[in-house]
Design the sequence.
């Protein structure tokens, strides 16, 4: 007999329960409300969220101290035989006319050129620039007006919920600039890591950019213009982690929805029923 006292789910006697139209309406509304909240929680549980964090480190230690660069730029008024890529950095690298993994596509019946290159740079401050320095004969008035289609670093990272400056110079149009002007793009490169649900990591780089254009002179006269990309690396790494809501949190939310909804509905139904009974007694009192 004493064991039954531990039953906290005791049944309410049938003579203490009374079905009402109000209770039926509230019950239907509760079921619909619970269904709506359940579907909302289920959608949130199935979907993934992106959590980001910042820390100081070199995330891609297996890269050998290199960063892959993808450059795609059009110079509509400069012949392809004049266009070249030069790379310099503080480790002493000085390469003029880099040609590995690069391609030149003639434009405007050969009067212009589209340069596409895939190359690597060291993880130290430096620059790479598009110029005529590697040409066998320097032109008198090279036209450096251009359009940048793509400049990106590291792995290609296109994730729906991640919005960043991975290709900040895309669409940069300098066709209306002074043809004899040099262009300086000052880049601050930020290492970025994306970790998916399986734990696989991809390494990319975002960057901010500032630019200026100018016609440079020295004591010997006007300096041959070029398109400079001067870069430096930030010590801060941005990490995006793909996560899904834990199962225990989903179950807790569902229990809270069901229990909370029925508790509030019970209080509401009790208040309405009590007010209705009191109103009936008042009416009967008035009739007497």
Sequence:
């Amino acid at each position: 007999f004493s064991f039954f006292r531990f039953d906290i789910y005791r049944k309410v006697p049938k003579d203490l329960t009374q079905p009402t139209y109000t209770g039926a309406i509230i019950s239907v509304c509760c079921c619909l409300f619970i269904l709506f909240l359940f579907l909302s929680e289920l959608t949130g549980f199935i979907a993934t969220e992106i959590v980001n964090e910042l820390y100081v480190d070199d995330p891609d230690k297996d890269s050998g101290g290199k960063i892959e660069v993808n450059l795609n730029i059009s110079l509509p008024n400069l012949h392809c035989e004049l266009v070249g890529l030069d790379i310099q950095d503080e480790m002493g690298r000085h390469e003029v006319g880099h040609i590995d993994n690069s391609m030149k596509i003639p434009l405007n019946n050969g009067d212009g050129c589209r340069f596409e290159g895939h190359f690597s740079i060291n993880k130290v401050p430096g620059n790479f620039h598009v110029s005529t320095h590697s040409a066998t004969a320097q032109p008198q008035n090279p036209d450096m007006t251009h359009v940048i289609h793509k400049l990106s670093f590291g792995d290609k990272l296109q994730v729906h919920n991640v919005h960043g400056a991975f290709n900040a110079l895309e669409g940069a149009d300098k066709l209306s600039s002074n043809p004899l002007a040099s262009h300086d793009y000052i880049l601050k490169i930020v290492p970025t890591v994306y970790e998916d649900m399986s734990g696989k990591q991809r390494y990319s780089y975002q960057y901010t950019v500032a630019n200026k254009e100018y016609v440079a002179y020295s004591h010997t006269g006007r300096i041959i213009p070029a398109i400079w990309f001067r870069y430096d690396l930030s010590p801060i790494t941005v990490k995006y982690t793909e996560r899904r809501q834990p199962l225990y949190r989903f179950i807790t939310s569902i229990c809270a929805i069901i229990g909370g909804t029925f508790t509030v509905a019970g209080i509401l139904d009790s208040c309405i029923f009590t007010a209705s009974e009191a109103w009936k007694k008042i009416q009967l009192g008035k009739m007497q």
Q: What stands out?
A: Helices lie at 21-46, 247-287.
